[in-house]
Amino acid sequence: MGKRRKKDIYNGPNLTDQYDFIEDQQFEIKIKEYHQNGVGIGYIKGVPVWIFNSIIGETVLVKIKKIFPEKLIAEIISFNISSKKRIKPICKFYGDCTGCQWQHISYDEQLKLKKSNIVKLLRNFNLIDVGFVMDTLPSKNNFNYRNHARFTVRKDFDKEKLGFINFLDRKWISIDECKIMNHTINEKMKIISTDLRGLTQTSIRASDETKSFLIQPKLNTDTIETGQKYYEEKILKNIYKVASPSFFQVNPKQIEE
User: The domain at 148-255 falls in which architecture?
Assistant: First the structure.
C-alpha cells in the first residue's frame, strides 16, 4: 500500500487563544463560504468555524467540538434558516463519517459548486482564462460507483472492524457498508470483516463490470483470495490492469463520458 500524504501543519498566528472559547459552547452563526474540502464556514469574532452538514446562506445554532489555533470545529444543533437546496442524506453514517461532504446538498447544486471550486483555484494561481471552464459533467450514478476503498482497521468491542477516520475530529467510525463504493467492494467488505487480525489498514479495489478485485495487504485467511498485485477494470472495450499502488480514476463510468 502507498504512503499517505503528510498532514498540513499550521504555523500561523493563534486566532482562538485571545478568546474564551470552550468546548460545547453554543452560538448562532451564518454560513458564508465553503472550504476547498467542502465543509461550510462561518465566522465568530473573526475566527473561522468549520461546520459539517451546512450550506451557504443557512443560519444555524452550533456547539464547539474542537478548538484549534486557526479555527473552531462545530456541529449543528438546530437550523434557524435552512436552505432550499438541502436534501436528506441516504447514508446512515453521514456526519459521523466525513468521506462524503455534500450528501445533504442537491446534486444540481453540487455540480455548480464543483465548477465554482475549479474557477476559484484557477483564479488564485492565475493559470488560465476561467471563461474556458465548462459546466461539470453529471454522473449517471451518484452512488455505488467508486472502485477503490481504503479502510482504517481498529478494535471495537475486542474485535477488529473496518472503518474511516473523521477528518474533522479525528475519531474513528466503524462501518459495514459504504454508499459510494461499488457493489463488489461492499460484498468483499463483508467477507473480510472476520479476518482483520493484526491490520491497521486495508485496501480494496474492484470492478463491478469485470468482477475482478484486489485486497491489500495479504490477509491470513482461506475465505477469500487476497494479496493480488492488480485487478482488471473495463473502460469502453478496453481492459486495464490496475496495480495496487497506482492511480486510476475512481468512477469508471464517468471516464467513458
Answer: Beta Barrel (2.40)
